[in-house]
Amino acid sequence: MTEIRTPTPFPEELLSGYLDGALTQQDEQRVRLHLERSPEARALYAELVAMRQAGRSTPFPPAEDVQWNERARTGGSALARRLGFTLLGLSLALWVAVLALAGAGAVPDESLAWLPGAVGIAGVGGILLVFLSVLADRLRDLPSDRYRRVLK
After folding, report:
1. Quick one: 92 and 49 in the same domain?
2. How many domains does the chain have?
3. What is the pLDDT of residues 81-108, one digit of tens each?
4. d(CA 25, CA 86)
5. Does residue 34 belong to any structural domain of this protein?
């Protein structure tokens, strides 16, 4: 008895590899032969070529990535940032002074027991002011941000 062979379907991903020039010599020859014999394959290959040309010729403007070099956009947010960073710097300097005094054994008297708490509150207040100024600018720009739905 003779065995009847059914033709194996042509893997269409080879057309993409052929277009990219990424096939082995054997697969490249196989694709050329298939393109000569099959009008459907030629049409699909022509479609792939057209899509590649369209993709390469379409200009895509790059998204502006200004989130790290952002300046305050309004006078109020600029003032809040300056005040916030001033409070943070002052808080840090006072913490260093309090820790240096405590390390030197020159513990301030009990009338200054409120100082560490006040320094901590000033630092938290500074962080809060900077955060709120950035949040205010971001919320103000949100309606006109054309990249807000773009995932990076």
Report:
1. no
2. 2
3. 899 999 999 888 888 887 777 777 666 5
4. 69
5. yes
Distances (CA, A) of 84 to 71, 80, 81, 97, 106: 14, 6, 5, 20, 30
Residue 5 lies in a domain: no
Structure tokens of 121? Answer: 């509150």
Which domain does 33 fall in, by range? 13-57
> Please, which residues have CB within 8 angstroms of residue 92's CB and are 6 or more apart in sequence?
123
Tokens 């773009």 locate to 150
Residue 152 lies in a domain: no
- Residues 82 and 37 grouped into a single domain: no
What global pTM score does this model have? Answer: 0.46
Tokens 């459907």 map to which residue?
40
Low-confidence spans in the chain with pLDDT less than 70: 1-8, 63-70, 105-113, 151-152
What are the pLDDT digits (tens) for 29-38?
999 999 999 9
Question: To which residue do tokens 């739905």 refer?
Answer: 149
